[in-house]
Amino acid sequence: MVADGIYYALAFAAGGGFVSYMTKPVFGVPLFVLAAFCLYFFRDPDREIPSGPVAVSPADGKVVSIVRLSDTETRISIFLSVFDVHVNRTPVAGTVSSVVYQPGRFLVASREQASTVNEMNTITVDGEGTRVVFKQIAGLIARRVVCWKKPGDKVALGERIGLIKFGSRTDVVFGPEWDIVVRMGERVAGGSSIIARRRNG
After folding, report:
1. Residue 48 to residue 58: CA distance in whole angstroms
2. 46 within some domain
3. What is the pTM of this model?
4. Same domain as 92, residue 169
């Protein structure tokens, strides 16, 4: 459980208690339901991390786009609904070389345009002979992207690195040394689903 979920749940529960006390218990029910949903939304389950020369999904969700950006780069986009786990994980092991925050819009995260104009954190991880860039992208409901890492931090494959609050999107950009193995429309789990494999690894 992410601590934010407890804070939100306590706030909604307190509001529900106050409304119930001041009016009737039935009027406090919606706030108690929201409190329960916050506990559900901010869940943070443990995951079995695979081994070998692989990259894992940075988030739970559905693959909505696999785009060849150039001769050397391919982008995978994953859409997270409000029912998915929103804790993000690093797709590869290595050293965080940069974390760049970009303020922006809050378009529906499944739209292609969201990859460039929405609020986001862009995180670059340098591993052994590879560099992978991934983005935490806010969506229509999400209003905050949170990264717990800073440049210079070492990260293990599938390690927790941040959180996007409510519906959102993650993008991962791979270089030519990677073979994409995930498919369009596939459901993936953060930290455990393999989305690419290193060539000659």
Report:
1. 14
2. no
3. 0.84
4. yes
